[in-house]
Each structure stands twice: as structure tokens, then as C-alpha cells.
């Protein structure tokens, strides 16, 4: 069986917006995302996805659930298949708990997130005890308020300070989380020592890693990040994004800088919409995450060679994620400055004035390609075309691609048709891929999965399952009839259960069930599949009931409410806000 602890770790790591957006393109709608519901036909969007609650809900048909539930409903997967799919998305390996007491159990690493959170609290407390670290931050112009907002901390010098926080210093979770390192001789020691610590948060505000900056300028490396873990992948996360989301929406733009101190220093001066990549070049995943917050992204780099190299890599990595509605631009500061030093010397107004002069992506690409190319000779123009071709091939946004092609053709002194015939460029006029047709029935696959597992192994059915099923739809009637039939024939074969159901359930539903039985994976862990489907369905019915009760009580005037109804409204209302 899949350990419950792993499922929780997986759901902490997965972003439901990413999961659903692959099947149903989402649009930003305030703090949430919306779309036309994939579970029933509708013309106006009633399907919402909450990145903070990690939950989806359709106000039209009532479909709702977690990322696991969505895959089960939309793709018709079993619980186990959905868990495996999500694990593959985030690079996790699904462990299994041994059922047989005589067999050795597989090791499962528990408590990664809890370990990281405890470490963050420890580092934060240690900062208050270190005059040297406090003085360093003050010298960088950082106020206590901003340091507290970003939960900045300090990892003291010494080899095993975390042993005071984690008495079981040999716990595997500490090494997997990247807090502790083990050398070739088997000796364990703290990864971060004598560094200013910057916690890295996921989309829910949970600590998933750290960045450590040296205080002593002679120490190396200058920045030291947590390693990749089941919770943390550098290419998917952006430092400061969780705290910057509201400011990004208010400003209408996101600013991407190179370092943690740049993000924190800019926030100190009121520029709170900055984020930073985590020791890696900006990736398409980063761009996609930012596009969910805003339509304008400005990259700000130092004017030195390292900054110029980083900017070009960011531009090239952004091309596959580019859309016609997205504005990407590049700001290069004078060589003597980074964003931290520039904003401290010139202030917020001057820095934001520089942002407004940032170079658009297309202009930056053309400038970079022609920087060391005079475009005078035929050979110059051929080299220019050869270098531009792979760039143009990566841009899928039709309008952006067409305008860039026209500019490239002009500089190469060719017509657009001549250039098209010479280069292998994708067709911008091809018909868009056909979207998956909407399902004609509302949320049925989860009910069917539960029924199929019961039919295949009726002995697993529990009479208590009848207590939480509500409603009188075809799906609910099917559930009740299947449970009752399995309870009456706990040791019968599927063919017997199906024969009994034929006289009690609509013939069309029986036909669907038979088709699904024929293609059911024979290697499926039925006990695990039933447990997962039962858990998802119980959650679905519980939330439906709570929503209905809240609506019913909310319609009454406050003066007419009983004490019990007031308490109910208060408790349910607090759940809705969470």
C-alpha cells in the first residue's frame, strides 16, 4: 500500500493549477483561476481552481476535489494510477508499505516539510542572538520588519548546531531535506554554517528549502542552496513568489532578479513584486508560473559579462512559454551596480523609471544577434539567418513569431516568403489542436471506480459505506445498489454481482460498467484503489453537505438563528475562508 505520509508529501509538492491547466486551460481570475467546466457542457466559466487551497470546484455541476480527484474524474484513473501520475510530474518515487509482517518493510522518509519548518524557526531565532549577523543586515539597509516578513535567519558557525533542534540527528529526513550532510567516513554535519538564511516557500507558503548567503566576503560559495529534494526542484521554484503575488497583481508586472538579497532589498524600498531564480537559469516553468500572476515580466540583470550571459539564457529558455499576450523585457543596470546597490543609491522612483525603459524581447534578440555582426556581406547575412533560425523555431505564439520573422527578413534583406522558403520554420497558420470534447455526464468516473472495485472484490465492502452516501442521482443509486448487493454476496464472482445489479440499475449504466470491467488493469491493487476512491468520495459528500448547510443557514436573518445554527455558520464559514 502507498503510505499516507507519502500522499501528503506529494500533495504538498504538487501544484493543482499545473495539473489541471494541462487538460483544461485556466485563466487568472483574481486570486483564483477559472475555466469552462471539463465535466459538463457550459458556455460561461463556473469552474474555479484555488492555488492556496489546492482545490477545484464547479458551481455548475458541483464537481470538486484535489489534484488526485481531478485525475481520477477527468482521465478515469484509479486512485493508485493518479498517485503515480502526480509523482512522475514532480520527480518523486512512490514507495510501498509491506503488508506481510514477515517481509521487510520499504523505508519511507517522513516529515520532510516539518523538518524544514523547524529548521526555519531555529535559524530565525538564532539571528536574534547574533549581533554580527544583525549588523551585516543593517549594513545592507535591511529593517527588522522586512527581515521578519521574509523570515530571514542565521545558521551559526559550528558543525552540528541542528542537533539541539533534532535530538535524533541521524534521522534520514534531515539528509533528504538537505539540512544535514554525511561525508565519506559517515560523519554527519550541518549543511549551512555561518550564513544568512533565506527560506524558500512553495505556493502555499510552506518552507521547502533554503538559500544561504555568506557574511564573510572571503568565504565561498557566495550563495549556497538546498539540494533538490522531493519537495524542492530549483527549475520549478522562484524565491519570493509566495510573498510577491499580491504586489505583482497590483503592479501589473513581475521583476525577475538574480539574488535573494536583491529581492529583499527591493522590498525594503517598496518594490515588492520582485522574485529570483534559485541558482539556475530562468526556465519555461518559471515563466509559466509568472504568467499566471501577470502579463508582463521584466528581467533585471547586472551589466557585467555574467549578467549578460544570464540574460541571454533566460531569453532562450522563455521562448517555448511565450504567448502573444505576454510582454517580456530586459533591463541591464550599469556594470557597477546590481538591483540591491542601485535602489539603495538612487531610490525607488529612479529604479522604476529604468524598468519602464526595459528592452522588449524581440528587440533584445535582434540586438544580440547583430551585436558582433555588421550584416554587410552575404556571409554576414547567412550567419545571421543561421543563428536566428533555431530561435524562431521555438516561438509558438503566432503574432510574436510573425513580427520577429519580418524583422529578421528585413535585416537579412530578404522578403518574408524568400526567408520562409530557405528556413525550416513552423507553420503559423495551422489549425489549433482540437480540444478534448466536454464530458456529457457529471463527475461519474470516481463513482464508477468505487463500484468496479466493489464488484471485483465484494468482500472489501463495508456496511458503513451506506451511511455517508447522499443524493438520488444515477451515480448515488448505483453506489447504494452495488454496496447492498456486495454485502449480500460477499464471496461471489463479478459476473454474479453484475447479474444481480442488472435488475436494479439502468441498463445503460450496466453497459458502461461492463465495458470498464473488460479493460480494468488486472494488476490493480483493489484494496488500495477502493480505499482511495472511498476517501475521495467521502470528502466530496462531506463538502457538498457542508456547502448546502451553509447556504441554508445563511439565508436566514441573523436574528432568527438558533444558537446551534450560529455555531454551525461560524464553523462552516471558517472552513470556507481557509
TrEMBL record:
Domain called Toprim: residue spans: 252-334
Keyword annotations: DNA replication, DNA-binding, DNA-directed RNA polymerase, Magnesium, Metal-binding, Nucleotidyltransferase, Primosome, Transcription, Transferase, Zinc, Zinc-finger
Cofactor note: Binds 1 zinc ion per monomer.
Reaction equation(s) it catalyzes: ssDNA + n NTP = ssDNA/pppN(pN)n-1 hybrid + (n-1) diphosphate
Pfam families the UniProt entry points to: DnaB_bind (PF10410), DNAG_N (PF08275), Toprim_2 (PF13155), Zn_ribbon_DnaG (PF01807)
SMART domains the UniProt entry points to: TOPRIM, ZnF_CHCC
Enzyme Commission identifier(s): 2.7.7.101
Enzyme's top EC category: transferase
Function: RNA polymerase that catalyzes the synthesis of short RNA molecules used as primers for DNA polymerase during DNA replication.
Domain writeup: Contains an N-terminal zinc-binding domain, a central core domain that contains the primase activity, and a C-terminal DnaB-binding domain.
Assembly, per entry: Monomer. Interacts with DnaB.
Name of this protein: DNA primase
Amino acid at each position: 500500500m502507498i503510505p499516507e505520509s507519502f500522499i501528503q508529501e506529494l500533495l504538498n509538492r504538487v501544484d493543482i493549477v499545473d495539473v489541471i491547466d494541462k487538460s483544461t486551460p485556466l485563466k487568472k481570475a483574481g486570486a483564483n483561476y477559472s475555466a469552462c467546466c471539463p465535466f459538463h457542457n457550459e458556455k460561461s466559466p463556473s469552474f474555479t481552481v484555488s492555488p492556496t487551497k489546492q482545490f477545484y470546484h464547479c458551481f455548475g455541476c458541483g464537481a470538486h476535489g484535489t489534484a488526485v480527484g481531478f485525475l481520477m474524474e477527468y482521465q478515469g484513473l484509479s486512485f493508485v494510477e493518479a498517485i503515480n501520475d502526480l509523482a512522475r510530474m514532480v520527480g518523486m518515487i512512490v514507495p510501498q508499505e509491506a503488508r506481510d509482517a514477515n517481509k521487510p518493510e520499504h523505508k519511507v522518509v517522513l516529515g520532510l516539510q516539518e523538518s524544514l519548518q523547524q529548521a526555519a524557526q531555529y535559524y530565525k531565532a538564532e539571528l536574534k542572538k547574533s549581533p554580527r549577523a544583525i549588523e551585516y543586515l543593517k549594513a545592507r539597509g535591511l529593517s527588522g520588519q522586512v527581515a521578519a516578513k521574509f523570515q530571514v535567519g542565521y545558521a551559526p558557525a559550528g558543525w552540528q548546531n541542528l542537533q539541539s533542534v533534532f535530538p535524533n540527528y541521524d534521522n534520514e529526513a534531515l539528509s533528504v531535506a538537505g539540512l544535514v550532510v554525511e561525508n565519506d567516513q559517515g560523519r554527519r554535519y550541518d549543511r549551512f554554517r555561518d550564513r544568512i538564511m533565506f527560506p524558500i516557500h512553495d505556493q502555499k507558503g510552506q518552507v521547502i528549502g533554503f538559500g544561504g548567503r555568506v557574511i564573510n566576503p572571503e568565504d565561498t560559495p557566495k550563495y549556497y542552496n538546498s539540494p533538490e529534494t522531493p519537495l524542492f526542484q530549483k527549475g520549478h521554484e522562484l524565491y519570493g513568489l509566495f510573498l510577491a503575488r499580491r504586489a505583482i497583481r497590483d503592479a501589473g508586472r513581475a521583476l525577475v532578479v538574480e539574488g535573494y538579497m536583491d529581492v529583499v532589498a527591493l522590498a525594503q524600498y517598496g518594490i515588492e513584486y520582485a522574485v529570483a531564480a534559485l541558482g539556475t537559469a530562468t526556465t519555461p516553468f518559471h515563466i509559466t508560473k509568472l504568467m499566471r500572476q501577470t502579463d508582463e515580466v521584466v528581467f533585471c540583470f547586472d551589466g557585467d559579462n555574467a549578467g549578460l550571459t544570464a540574460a541571454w539564457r533566460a531569453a532562450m529558455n522563455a521562448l517555448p512559454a511565450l504567448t502573444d499576450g505576454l510582454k517580456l523585457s530586459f533591463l541591464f543596470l550599469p556594470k557597477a551596480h546590481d538591483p540591491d546597490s542601485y535602489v539603495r543609491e538612487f531610490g525607488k522612483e529612479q529604479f522604476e523609471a529604468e524598468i519602464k525603459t526595459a528592452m522588449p524581447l524581440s528587440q533584445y534578440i535582434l540586438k544580440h544577434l547583430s551585436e558582433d555582426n555588421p550584416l554587410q556581406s552575404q556571409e554576414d547575412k547567412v550567419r545571421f539567418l543561421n543563428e536566428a533560425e533555431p530561435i524562431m523555431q521555438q516561438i509558438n505564439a503566432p503574432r510574436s513569431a510573425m513580427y520577429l520573422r519580418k524583422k529578421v527578413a528585413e535585416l537579412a534583406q530578404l522578403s518574408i516568403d524568400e526567408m520562409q522558403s530557405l528556413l525550416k520554420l513552423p507553420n503559423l497558420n495551422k489549425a489549433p489542436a482540437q480540444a478534448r470534447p466536454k464530458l456529457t455526464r457529471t463527475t461519474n468516473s470516481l463513482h464508477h471506480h468505487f463500484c468496479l472495485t466493489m464488484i471485483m472484490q465484494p468482500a472489501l465492502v463495508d456496511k458503513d459505506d451506506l451511511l455517508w452516501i447522499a443524493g438520488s442521482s444515477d451515480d448515488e443509486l448505483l453506489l447504494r445498489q452495488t454496496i447492498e448487493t456486495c454485502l449480500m454476496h460477499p464471496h461471489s464472482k463479478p459476473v454474479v454481482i453484475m447479474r444481480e445489479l442488472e435488475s436494479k440499475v439502468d441498463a445503460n449504466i450496466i453497459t458502461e460498467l461492463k465495458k470498464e470491467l473488460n479493460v480494468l488493469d488486472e494488476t490493480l491493487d483493489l484494496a488500495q484503489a477502493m480505499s482511495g476512491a472511498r476517501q475521495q468520495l467521502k470528502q466530496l459528500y462531506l463538502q457538498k453537505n457542508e456547502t448546502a448547510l451553509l447556504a441554508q443557514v445563511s439565508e436566514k436573518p441573523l436574528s432568527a438563528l438558533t444558537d446551534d445554527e450560529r455555531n454551525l455558520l461560524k464553523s462552516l464559514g471558517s472552513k470556507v475562508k481557509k
